[in-house]
Amino acid sequence: MKVQHALVGLTVALVLGTVTAAHAAGPPYTVAVGGSTTGMQAITFTSSGAVTFAIKNNAGTVVNMNCTEISGTGTVMKGVGVNPIASITSTTWTGCRFPWFGALNVIQNVSSNIAGTGATATAGTSDSVTGHFGNVNFGWVAASSPASCSFTVSGKLDMAFNEATQQILINETGYSGDAVLPNVGPCAGQVQAGNPFDMVAKLNVSTGGAGAINLS
What we know:
Elements: H1 2-23, E1 29-33, E2 40-47, E3 52-56, E4 62-64, E5 69-77, E6 79-82, E7 86-94, E8 97-98, E9 102-108, E10 112-116, E11 128-142, E12 150-162, E13 167-172, E14 179-184, E15 197-206, E16 213-215
Antiparallel strand pairs: 1-6, 1-16, 2-5, 2-15, 3-4, 3-15, 5-7, 7-10, 8-9, 9-11, 10-11, 11-12, 12-13, 12-14, 13-15
């Protein structure tokens, strides 16, 4: 009887494990927009609240270059077995400033992507799925004197996609080195090549009335 009970317990555990796996998925995902899982969906996004951007230089000093707003466009890839789940093809950065050089112009050099890493995607509509804002490559140039300061930032940024609010929450903190400055112009020696950077921003995503984005 003890053996039978053990087998029953093992069977129940396996069944429960199967049910759990079926209800919480990791990458790749089934990606739907408004219930549709076919084709691609154009999206736009605009930040809300503060956009913080900071570089830690060789001396350990944190140089803040915060912006007032980020907006952009991209495409969600709908379907089964999808990851990355979206591409970001253009961005507009407003109000970015370098303490020593004033206003900065920011140029997106290549398309970025949104890729999930979290195993929390369910059929529900309130999941928060972690991931990366990847293939980041942006050029920053002093608006008043481009020759005096310019640098490139590249790498990937930690983020999460919140299904309930339809927001991308970028939260790259701790100067991990996932995102760095590979190329730096003069910049009065305030930042150097290889310096890590942090970024925190909340991006509100719109499908233009096509419906909510859902990962499962």
